């Protein structure tokens, strides 16, 4: 095998609750993560050298050792130093379709894709659990991105428990192109505003609704899922950014199943029963806002993680 072509899907958060602070300065979380069809396209080729080269068509993505896709290759080389000597280096070519720094795990999914591809190209024979453990070293969202689908994530987000997979619903995603949120900033703000209320880890403040959401997912009941969407970080982002507050309150009046910010934002999504409903909502937003900076996407919930499309 000389090449891997992969689809690396974005995720949204159907639920994100901060339970408290951890000894390592991360937060103890309980989340429901959901893959969506919106994906980066990643091609990985042997390049006949001993180097890892990185290419991306989006100027916002760093092309150096801070890129999570590059870090994934470095991590594999560190753990399996013979593989680079034995098989040779690779070019990693990222066709970026997922908005950057948007709360959609765009970087994490690229990192997961590189772990999967090098496992195949360098014949490492790692199983999914071993790939997830490696992913943990790259970032808390990477383990989920390996298998994707629908899952409860706890700890820092790296402990993954797959649940009944949702793929029957659609979403409209809205993000201002020139506006991003840094994930550490959002958690820091939450700590400043609500840190005093952090309870001892594992005491869910919103536990009743969490259980109801899991039941609704089990029943694939879109209306109930829409009513139970939850994100603790939303209040800190909305309280500081009027533009996102206005976008969200407009979207929630559009008759979808529910509207919420994803992850640390600033992407806002509306859950929809059908593609037609999603198209209709998107068209109304386009006409009303008439803002070329406002990027809108329609996507479907997906039961897939990283998908090796052809070898
Ligand atoms: P998450 O939801 O996992 O917190 P995010 O969706 O909010 O992440 P990313 O798109 O992963 O955000 O980007 C966060 C930052 O990571 C960017 O500002 C960028 O500088 C850096 N980055 C590193 N590697 C990548 C990559 N492969 N794709 C996108 N951004 C990357």
UniProtKB/TrEMBL annotation:
Its EC number is 2.7.1.148. GO terms for biological process: isopentenyl diphosphate biosynthetic process, methylerythritol 4-phosphate pathway; terpenoid biosynthetic process. GO terms for molecular function: 4-(cytidine 5'-diphospho)-2-C-methyl-D-erythritol kinase activity; ATP binding. Pathway: Isoprenoid biosynthesis; isopentenyl diphosphate biosynthesis via DXP pathway; isopentenyl diphosphate from 1-deoxy-D-xylulose 5-phosphate: step 3/6. The active site is at residues 11, 141. Keywords: ATP-binding, Isoprene biosynthesis, Kinase, Nucleotide-binding, Transferase. InterPro entries: GHMP_kinase_C_dom, GHMP_kinase_C_sf, GHMP_kinase_N_dom, IspE, Ribosomal_Su5_D2-typ_SF, Ribsml_uS5_D2-typ_fold_subgr. It holds the Pfam family GHMP_kinases_N. ATP binds at residues 99-109. Residues 67-149 form the GHMP kinase N-terminal domain. It catalyses: 4-CDP-2-C-methyl-D-erythritol + ATP = 4-CDP-2-C-methyl-D-erythritol 2-phosphate + ADP + H(+). Residues 215-289 form the GHMP kinase C-terminal domain. Catalyzes the phosphorylation of the position 2 hydroxy group of 4-diphosphocytidyl-2C-methyl-D-erythritol. Belongs to the GHMP kinase family. IspE subfamily. PANTHER family: 4-DIPHOSPHOCYTIDYL-2-C-METHYL-D-ERYTHRITOL KINASE, CHLOROPLASTIC (PTHR43527). This is 4-diphosphocytidyl-2-C-methyl-D-erythritol kinase. It comes from Atelocyanobacterium thalassa (isolate ALOHA). The lineage of its organism: Bacteria, Bacillati, Cyanobacteriota, Cyanophyceae, Oscillatoriophycideae. The gene is ispE.
């Amino acid at each position: 095998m000389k090449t891997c072509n992969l689809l690396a899907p974005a995720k949204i958060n159907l639920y994100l609750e901060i339970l408290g602070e951890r000894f390592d300065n991360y937060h103890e979380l309980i989340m429901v993560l959901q893959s969506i069809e919106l994906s980066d396209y990643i091609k990985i080729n042997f390049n006949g050298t001993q180097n890892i080269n990185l290419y991306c068509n989006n100027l916002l993505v760093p092309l150096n050792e801070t890129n999570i896709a590059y870090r994934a290759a470095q991590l594999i080389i560190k753990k399996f130093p013979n593989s680079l000597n034995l098989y040779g280096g690779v070019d990693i070519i990222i066709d970026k379709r997922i908005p950057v720094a948007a709360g959609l795990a765009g970087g994490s999914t690229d990192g997961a894709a590189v772990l999967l591809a090098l496992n195949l190209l360098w014949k490492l024979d790692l199983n999914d659990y071993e790939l997830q453990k490696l992913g943990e070293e790259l970032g808390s969202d990477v383990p989920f991105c390996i298998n994707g689908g629908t899952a409860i994530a706890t700890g820092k987000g790296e402990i993954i428990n797959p649940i009944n997979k949702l793929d029957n619903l659609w979403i409209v995603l809205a993000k201002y192109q020139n506006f991003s949120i840094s994930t550490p900033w959002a958690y820091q703000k939450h700590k400043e505003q609500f840190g005093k209320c952090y309870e001892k880890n594992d005491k869910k403040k919103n536990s009743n609704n969490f259980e109801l959401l899991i039941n609704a997912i089990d029943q694939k009941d879109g209306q109930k899922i829409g009513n139970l969407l939850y994100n603790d970080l939303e209040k800190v982002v909305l309280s500081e950014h009027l533009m996102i507050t206005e976008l969200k309150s407009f979207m929630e009046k559009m008759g979808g199943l529910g509207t919420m910010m994803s992850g640390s934002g600033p992407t806002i999504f509306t859950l929809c029963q059908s593609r037609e409903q999603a198209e209709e909502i998107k068209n109304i937003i386009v006409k009303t806002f008439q803002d070329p900076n406002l990027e809108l996407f329609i996507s479907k919930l997906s039961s897939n993680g990283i998908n090796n499309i052809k070898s």
